[in-house]
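[job 0412] stage=fold_complex status=start
inputs:
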Amino acid sequence: MQHRAVALGKLEVVQGARPAGGDPLYRSYALGSAFDEMFTPDGEVRPHYAALHSRIAALPSEELIRRQQACELSFLHQGITFTVYSDAQATERIIPTDLLPRIVTAQEWERVERGLTQRIRALNLFLEDIYGEARVLKDGILPRTMIYGSKHYKREMRGVSVPHGAYVNVCGTDLVRREDGAFVVLEDNLRVPSGVSYMLANREVVRRAFPGVFRAAGVRPIEHYPQELLATLKSLAPYLEDASIAVLTPGVFNSAYFEHAFLARQMGVELVEGRDLLVNDNFVYARTTSGLKRIDILYRRVDDDFIDPLTFREDSTLGVPGIFNAWRAGNVVIANALGTGVADDKAVYAYVPKLISYYLDEDPILENVETHLCREPQSLSHTLANLDKLVVKAVGESGGYGMLVGPHASAAEREAFAEKLKADPENYIAQPTIQLSTAPTLVDGHVESRHVDLRPFILHGDRTTIVPGGLTRVALKRGSLVVNSSQGGGSKDTWVLTS
Amino acid sequence: MLSRVAENLYWTGRYVERAEHTSRLLAVKLESMAEQSGEAAEAGWSRVIAALAAEASADDLGDALSRTEVLALDRGNPSSLLSSLSWARDNARQAREQLSSEVWECLNRLYLRLRPLTIEQVWVHEPHRIFRETLQNLHALEGVIYSTLRHGEGWYFLELGRYIERAQLVSRLLAIHFPADDGAGTSPTYVDWLVLLKFCCAFEPYLKEHTAAIVPSRVAGFLLFDAEFPRSVNFAVGRVSDALQHVAQGAPPQRRAACERLAGRLKASIDFGRIDEMMEGSIAQFLAAITRQCEDIHDAVHAAYIAYGAAAVA
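[job 0412] stage=fold_complex status=done
writing structure:
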C-alpha cells in the first residue's frame, strides 16, 4: 500500500482533560489541543457517538480484546496482508484494524462530498488544459517551470484526448481535521491510490463486531464501491456494448496485490499482469488458454514509468510494450490516464484553491492546509525565520524523503537545511505541524485517543461518484501523527450517518 | 481463461496433491514404526525418502526426527510438505480471483497452521498426529474445491494438475517397490506391501476387492489398473484425459489434438497393460514409461495453452 506520512514527528501528548467522569475504560484517554472525534473539549460525548460509547461501556474489556483478536485473525485468514521485505526474509503482515469506527455526521459528509467533487472537476480540467492549450500557464496562474520541470509531466500525453476529459478516474484524497474541527485537504493522490479494499474489509469485520450499534446508527452503505468502479470504467468506452475490462497489477510481489485481486474479483473482471498482455497492430490482447482476447479497458495499478518500456522506462518488466501507442490510437482505455502525477505534486497542491477559482469560478469548499511556497520571496523569509515550527518538504518527493521536521530537528540540522533551502527555494514548500484530530481507539482492552486522517475515494467518469466514507488511517503509537502503515499505522471503519 | 492463471491453477493442483502424498507417507510411516524395527524399518525409511526427496538418501538425514524434519518442515527442501504447501498457496494467490473465498481460506489456514511449527513441537506427543490432521484438512480442501468452485475451465486445470501429479507419485512409489535391478537392497516384506497400500489410502478398498490375501502382483495390479479406486494410476490417467477434454475449448483444434493424443496414448497403454506379463520382468520399464508420458503431457499442455507464440492473433 502506498502510504505517506501525514506530517512527520511525534508531538508531546498534552495531558489535559480526561473525558467521561473517570470511567476506568478511558483512564488513559488524553484530550489535547487536537479536535477529538468522540468528546467535546469538556469531555462530553458528542451526540453521534453516544450509541457506540454506551455499547463499549457495556462490554467487558476481555470481550473487546476478544473481538479485536477475532477481527485480526479474520484478516490473516483472508490473506489481507502486505509483505515487508528485509534481507532474504519476506514477512506477511496485516494492517492492524481498530474495531472502534470513526463516525462522520451527515452534514459534515455533505460538505466533504461537495468539496471533493468540486476539487476533482478542477483537477481534471487542469490536466486537460496543461496537456492541451496550457491556458493556465499563458494566463500566468502557475509558473511554467513548475509544470514543464516536473518529472511527472509526461510530454507524450500532449494532444492525447481522453473520454469525458476524465484523466483521473480514481482519486484518493487525504483529509485531516484541523484543531477547529474543519476538514482540510492534506494531499491529492491522483496516480494509483490504494486502500479501498481495506475500507471494504474493515466494514465487514466491524459490522460483525457491533451489529446492534451499526443497525441503530443508520450507517450509509459502501459495499457498492466495486459496482461503481465498474460503471465508471465502462463509462470511459460508452461506444462499446460489451467492453472487456481488466485490472492490471504489477504482480504478486506488490504490496497492494491483495487489493488488485480483490477489486478484480469483486468486479468480476480479469486480473492481469504485464506479461499476460501483448500489443499487436495497436490492439491490446490477453493471452488466454483459448487464444488471444481483446482488452478494451484497463484499470491499471502500475505506475506511469513502468507501464510501457517502449515509451517510458525501457528497463521495466512490469509493463506492456506498445500499450501507449495502442491507447493513443484509441484502441484501449487506460484508467487513470498517464501523467496525472503532475497535478498532485506538493507545489501544484498549493495552487489548487486558485485552480478551482480559475476553472470553475467558484470558491473552494474544502481548504488546503496552509502552505508556503518557498519560491516566493516573502514565503522563503517566513520559512527561514520559523524553521523550528514548520515542516519543510521537497516538492517532487514523497514518503518523507527530503523533509525537515522543524520542531524535532537539532539546531545544526536546521542550519544545514536552511542552506539547501536558500540554494534551491523552488524545490521546497513549508507547512505548519498539523495536530490531526483524535479518535477513540482500543489499546489493550481500554480506550485511548489516537490521531487519524481520512482518505475518501472519488470515482470520476461520465459523472463523479463518492461512496460515503473512506479509509480512516490511525497512528497507533500514542501521540504519533504518522498514520503510515509501515510506521505503526492502522486503519478504522468509517461510518457516514444517514441523518 | 488467462494462460498464466490456468498455469497457476494447474500448479496449485499439483502441489496440493504432493502435499497430501507427503503427509500420508509421513503419517503412515510414523504410525508403523511400532510394527517394524531394525533393518526392515530402515528399508522402509529408505523407500519413503526415495519417494519424497529425490536428492537425499536415508544415511544423510540422521534419525527419524531429523528425517521427518527434512521431509516435512524444511523450507530448504523444495519438496518438503511445507514447501509444497507454500508453493500451492503462492500459486493460488496468483489465481485468487478464480478461487472461492472458502478454497483460499482453507488452504491459507492450513499453511498458517504448519508454518510456525518446529520439529520439537511435532515430536513431543505422537509425531504422526500433525500429519493426520493435515490430511484431514487437505481432504476438506478437496471438498471445498469440489463444492464451491464452478466446474469450469479453472476447476479442470486444478484437476489436471492434481491427477498428473498423482499418476506420477503412485508410479514412483510402485517403482521403488519393484526396483529394476532385483537383488540390490532389502526386498519388501509382507508388512511393506501392507504399508504400501496404506501409503495410497488403498488398504480397505484392496481388501474389498481381493480379500486379506496381500500378494505383490495383486497390490501392483490394484494400484495400477483398478478403474474405480481414485488413487490408482488408471483412475488418475482417466481424469487427466477427461480434464483435457474440458480445458481450452476455444483453442485451435491442432493445438488441442497434440495434448489429447498424448493422453489417449497413455490411457491406452494402461487399458491394454496386463499385470501377469509385467510381473515377469517389465514392470519397472512400464512404470518409467508412465512417468515419462506424464512429463510429455505436461510439456504439451504448456506449449499449447500457456506459452504459445503471439502469431495467433484472432
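[job 0412] summary: The radius of gyration of chain A is 23 Å.
[job 0412] exit 0
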